[in-house]
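step=encode ok
step=design start
structure_in=
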């Protein structure tokens, strides 16, 4: 392979995990790297994601890990083959940050914080010669030159290769606003519409239920939902009732399927198992057990621990006649139907789906319509649940784009 030209210059646009990883690969490859970001500092979404504990990746087996990318598992697989969950941990350790595996299998820095990891990473990038240009919003091209809006007016610069890592369209206040979509479409790059992922959903709760239970967590619950394959799948976890719907990790894990159902049918139904630790036969036995003068609500609390928001959900989702029918009530405790009306707005979502279509990219992550320009991270059309899967694929895609750009620079 020919050597990289000694004066090669590459622009990385976007200072999130994918862009920073691309910049690291490029700087280690011996090229001059200029990283641009519209915000005053890099990694803002990365830092916010770490507020509750920096979940960096997941320790589950590679086969199960890969399935987390759903319909895009095959396309994401080459990224992960080059930089998998163990590689993420090794890379973090190389920054001087130790990690541990939590009880859920999620991997965290030992101090649970994002800021020390980001500081160590940025120090290494600066030591490697990466130049950072903050408050530079990409405006597209003027011929071969990149255009940027800066505090000092419009600025143009030309490069030998460009890596775009501009994020999706969630949390716009942190820089991911999807403003890049028309810029690429003008260059005939196919882009799938950006839609919310890892998001909450609207439910038309009654005012009575909403006023009493908004903010209430369901910590021991399971959800059955229809998957993309048409079959019913059950997951256990936790989520939260909101004033107008539901949100939380269990809901986020199902968001892709639920969003697609709503798009196809106008709504989606989930079935709640309010007592996942009890079998259906045991629930029926306890519900139909003689209760004497006690009310059914008191009986359910005594025998099955149903109280508070769970009791409220039964009253909200069942008619008075259904609640009085012990057989129907026992069934509902294991399969309570709840109808979701809409996904919450994309700017409230943890991440987004859609973006640059995979068929718009070659095997090196380069845009077929714009040679020398590469795409990485959440602006590409894939999605994953929370749990470290999002970050891992962002890192891995940034690395793949960086390697792709190096290969481009060495072309004969």
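sequence_out=
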């Amino acid at each position: 392979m020919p050597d990289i030209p000694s004066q090669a210059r590459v622009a990385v646009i976007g200072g999130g995990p994918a862009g920073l990883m691309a910049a690291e690969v490029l700087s280690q490859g011996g090229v001059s790297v200029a990283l641009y970001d519209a915000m005053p500092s890099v990694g803002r979404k990365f830092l916010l994601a770490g507020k509750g504990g920096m979940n960096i990746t997941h320790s589950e087996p590679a086969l199960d890990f890969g399935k987390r990318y759903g319909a895009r598992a095959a396309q994401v697989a080459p990224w992960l083959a080059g930089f998998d969950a163990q590689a993420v941990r090794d890379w973090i350790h190389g920054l001087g940050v130790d990690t541990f595996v939590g009880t859920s299998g999620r991997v965290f820095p030992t101090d649970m914080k994002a800021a020390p990891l980001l500081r160590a990473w940025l120090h290494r990038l600066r030591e490697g010669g990466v130049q950072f240009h903050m408050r530079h919003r990409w405006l597209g091209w003027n011929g071969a030159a990149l255009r940027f809006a800066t505090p000092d007016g419009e600025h143009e610069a030309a490069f030998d290769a460009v890596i775009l890592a501009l994020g999706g369209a969630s949390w716009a206040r942190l820089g991911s606003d999807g403003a890049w979509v028309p810029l690429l479409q003008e260059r005939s790059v196919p882009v799938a519409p950006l839609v919310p992922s890892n998001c909450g959903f609207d439910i038309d709760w009654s005012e009575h239920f909403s006023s009493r239970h908004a903010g209430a967590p369901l910590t021991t619950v399971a959800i059955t939902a229809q998957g993309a394959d048409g079959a019913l799948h059950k997951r256990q976890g936790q989520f939260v009732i909101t004033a107008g719907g539901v949100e939380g990790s269990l809901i986020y894990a199902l968001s892709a399927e639920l969003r697609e159902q709503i798009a196809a049918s106008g709504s989606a139904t989930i079935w709640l198992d309010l007592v996942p630790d009890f079998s259906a036969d045991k629930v029926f036995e306890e519900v139909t057990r003689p209760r004497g003068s006690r009310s059914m609500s008191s009986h359910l609390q005594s025998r099955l621990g149903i109280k508070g928001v769970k009791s409220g959900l039964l009253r909200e989702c069942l008619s008075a006649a259904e609640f009085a029918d012990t057989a129907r009530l026992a069934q509902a405790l294991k399969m309570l139907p709840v109808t979701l009306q809409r996904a919450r707005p994309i700017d409230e979502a943890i991440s987004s789906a859609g973006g640059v279509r995979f068929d718009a990219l070659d095997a090196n992550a380069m845009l077929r319509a714009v040679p020398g320009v590469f795409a990485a991270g959440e602006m590409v059309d894939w999605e994953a649940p929370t749990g470290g899967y999002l970050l891992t694929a962002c890192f891995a895609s940034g690395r793949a784009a960086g390697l792709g750009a190096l290969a481009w620079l060495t072309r004969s």
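step=design ok
step=annotate ok -> The chain has a mean pLDDT of 94.
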